[in-house]
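> call design_seq(struct)
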């Protein structure tokens, strides 16, 4: 009896299986690579450079230097990741801690590629010189290390501040406030310094204005009297009238000007 012949295997099916496997091995890596390349641009959309920060005010140093100091203080990376939780608040707190920043009003993402920082920088109103060391002082009495020359020649000096005396720090605040209020009068009045004059033996301290000619103007009692003094504007008015009348604030040696007396400005002997 003749045997039935076994049909040959379907070679075409095996061939297609091999081709399909090869195709899968090629297509999947390509798809993964395409997905990865597509993911990188998407990820970059959520990363900002420090150059993408815009400040509402000009710092007293190059902007790049200011941002580098902020980055170092906050231990930020080279790029800012917008996926980071509370990134904007962390930025705001770090910028606020910078010694030259008075206040930060807002840190906000105003466009997909730009952060806006609304802030106010401190403005020096006086300087304190101790040998070769110089500090600038803002209107709140905060000491600042100089970083530029733009205010160097226009700042009045504060003399007599003692950083080891607790009360002197409070008087420095008052001296700085006075410097800020008299900013437009310094040149016309020919002032050289604001002095914190302290007399421990008498338990008296005064704020005095010193002219370049050497005249002392007793401006305000800091300690030792509770007598009500004229307002700041009244004191300024008295000086302006005196200057208009005599043409100078300089007085003979051994005399001072006193604007604190209720009856009016007095020229009196040094006591």
């Amino acid at each position: 009896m003749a045997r039935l012949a076994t049909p040959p295997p379907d070679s075409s099916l095996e061939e297609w299986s091999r081709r399909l496997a090869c195709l899968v091995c090629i297509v999947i890596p390509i798809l993964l690579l395409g997905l990865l390349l597509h993911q990188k641009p998407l990820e970059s959309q959520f990363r900002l450079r420090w150059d993408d920060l815009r400040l509402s005010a000009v710092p007293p140093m190059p902007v790049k230097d200011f941002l580098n100091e902020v980055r170092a203080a906050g231990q930020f990376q080279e790029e800012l990741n917008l996926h980071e939780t509370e990134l904007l608040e962390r930025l705001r707190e770090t910028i606020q801690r910078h010694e030259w920043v008075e206040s930060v009003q807002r840190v906000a993402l105003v466009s997909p590629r730009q952060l806006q920082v609304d802030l106010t920088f401190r403005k020096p109103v006086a300087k304190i010189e101790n040998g070769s060391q110089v500090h600038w002082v803002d209107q709140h009495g905060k000491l600042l290390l100089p970083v530029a020359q733009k205010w160097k020649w226009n700042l009045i000096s504060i003399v007599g501040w003692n950083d080891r005396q607790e009360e002197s720090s409070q008087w420095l605040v008052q001296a700085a406030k006075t410097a800020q209020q008299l900013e437009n009068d310094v040149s016309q009045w020919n002032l050289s310094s604001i002095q914190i004059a302290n007399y421990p033996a008498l338990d008296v301290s005064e704020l005095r204005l010193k002219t370049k000619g050497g005249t002392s103007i007793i401006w305000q009692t800091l300690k030792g009297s509770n007598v009500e003094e004229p307002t700041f504007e009244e004191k300024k008015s008295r000086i302006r009238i005196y200057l208009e009348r005599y043409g100078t604030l300089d007085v003979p040696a051994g005399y001072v000007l006193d604007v604190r007396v209720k009856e009016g400005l007095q020229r009196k002997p040094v006591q």
